[in-house]
Design goal:
By secondary structure, the chain is an alpha/beta fold. It is built from 6 helices and 5 strands; from the N terminus they run E-H-E-H-E-H-E-H-E-H-H.
């Protein structure tokens, strides 16, 4: 079963670049959204394997959209992407439930590495994953 992605960013060019990177890495982009509200609606409709979510967007930002998606699906896998590297923003994103945080500009391999890790963790048996967390103190 192909791994599917929802790409969320208010900048069309950023969505295009992320989509090209993910497609080249053999992920299937099933949807794109420009706002947090669109992201929430599309997530419900498409049930993607993972989401790349911009932090700062008009109307509803990425952190708020992440919280809302996770209220609906506690297993949602979301990677935040932002040009803003403030520690407080990073902590807010992680506390909202984001699994990773990537700073713009980023190299294609950084995004692919983060997504590959996210999907490998998702494919792992939950018991093994839990045991690793205990072993590694996570």
């Amino acid at each position: 079963m192909p791994k599917t992605a929802l790409v969320v960013d208010d900048v069309a060019f950023a969505r295009k670049v992320i989509k090209e990177i993910l497609t080249a890495a053999k992920y299937t982009v099933v949807g794109e959204a420009a706002t947090g509200d669109e992201a929430i609606a599309m997530y419900k409709k498409l049930s993607p394997s993972f989401v790349t979510m911009d932090v700062v967007m008009p109307v509803r930002g990425g952190i708020e959209a992440t919280r809302k998606i996770l209220e609906e699906d506690k297993d949602a896998r979301i990677i935040m992407i932002s040009a803003m590297g403030h520690e407080q923003l990073l902590m807010e994103a992680i506390n909202a439930g984001a699994r990773d945080y990537i700073l713009k500009p980023f190299a294609a391999e950084d995004l692919v590495r983060a997504v590959d890790k996210l999907m490998a963790d998702a494919d792992e048996d939950p018991i093994i994953s839990q045991a690793k967390g205990v072993t590694h103190g996570a």
